[in-house]
Amino acid sequence: MAATYYFAIVGTKDSPLYETELTSSSKAASNFDTTPKDDHRHLNQFIIHSALDVVEEVQWNNQALYLKVIDRFNEYYVSAFVTAGNARLLLLHDVKSEDSIKNFFNEVHEMYIKVFMNPFYETNTPITSQQFDSKVKFIARRFL
Amino acid sequence: MSDPSAYAYPNSNSARLSTTSSVYTDSRQTRTKSLLERNLNRTKGAEVSLSALSFLFSEMIQYAQKRVNGIQDLERKLNELGYRVGLRMLELLVWRDRNPKRETRVLSILYFIHTALWKGLFGKQADSLEKSTENEDEFMISDNEPILTKYISVPRELSQLNCNAFIAGVVEAILDSAQFPARVTAHTVPIDGFPLRTTILIKFDKEVLEREEMLK
């Protein structure tokens, strides 16, 4: 069963720095699967955006980086991970698997920090690196 | 005290993580790893020679001095340079910690700066962390012998200048990105035995105090 995920990195000013759709099925992007999902694509951004408020509430009561599932929308769950510099990694998923999502977040967090360390990277600008994109997809295939 | 291994060429036999980026690097005929494959812990505990840093810092000050007029401007320029360092220090130091967590209270972020940041930058903790008795929103972190400005002697006309404005910028960036916006400045406050003692004065914005109240 193909589990689809929508992953976004939201900066401190609430603008998306990186977004991607991932799927755990090896028959990724088969024509049969994508057409109904097309309608949901713009919805993903709305769901993530409204989840930001919930993240803000939860993050002040919890000192952990990984905030687990913080919001639900119909059958989708929103899991959040907040970095020390308040960048939020948000994952929209329909299957609950805390451990693998935690590992996924930790690996992407490390990649994010490596991009962030670049002195030429300005905070809150979109991450356009092709390598970062392929790394995230690779991590997704490994853990999700 | 020098160990420039932080900038030494990495071993070309080290394992590559993903096949896609090895296509890039092989075609570029280079031995350096891509940005995303460098180990974040490689420079943990590494030291940079003080003479090299002082030289770099003196060039930074001269660079800033040409582009500003006045002491406030110069301090602000140094603050901006330190800001960029602080942003990255926060993420890196939290990640490198064995139990990474975010700070949600004022005292804990100040404690983090007093211990972890100072240790990360200078190899030792800061000398004191104090809360001002006059204002609720002011805190002070002092360093008896600031390493960064050890070899700086300020001319009499600029006696108000404290080049630790750079450090103030680092602290300000950490507080800003951890969502504790504040104004941070550096002041020279000599005491017996420590003529170069510098105090970093931190003045939090109102919203920080309001949130602290709500969290109590």
From TrEMBL, chain A:
Gene3D superfamilies given for it? Answer: 3.30.450.70
InterPro entries named among the record's database cross-references = Longin-like_dom_sf, Sedlin
Q: Which GO terms describe its biological process?
A: endoplasmic reticulum to Golgi vesicle-mediated transport
Give GO cellular component annotations, separated by semicolons: cytoplasm
- Where is the chain membrane-spanning? none
Indicate what this protein is called per its UniProt record: Trafficking protein particle complex subunit 2
Automatic annotation (TrEMBL), chain B:
**GO BP annotations listed:** endoplasmic reticulum to Golgi vesicle-mediated transport
The UniProt entry, under Gene3D superfamilies, shows: Trafficking protein particle complex subunit 3 (3.30.1380.20)
Query: Which residue stretches belong to region Disordered?
Result: 1-28
UniProt keyword annotation of ATP-binding present: no
Q: What is its main location?
A: endoplasmic reticulum
**Gene Ontology CC:** endoplasmic reticulum; TRAPPI protein complex; TRAPPII protein complex; TRAPPIII protein complex
Q: Which residues form a coiled coil?
A: none
Which superkingdom?
Eukaryota
Which regions are flagged for Polar residues bias? 10-27
Query: Which keywords appear in this protein's UniProt record, sorted alphabetically?
Result: Endoplasmic reticulum, ER-Golgi transport, Golgi apparatus, Transport
> What subcellular locations does the record give?
Endoplasmic reticulum; Golgi apparatus, cis-Golgi network
Q: Name the family.
A: Belongs to the TRAPP small subunits family. BET3 subfamily.
State the oligomer form and interacting partners: Part of the multisubunit TRAPP (transport protein particle) complex.
Please identify the protein, giving its name as recorded.
Trafficking protein particle complex subunit
- Species lineage: Eukaryota, Fungi, Fungi incertae sedis, Mucoromycota, Mucoromycotina
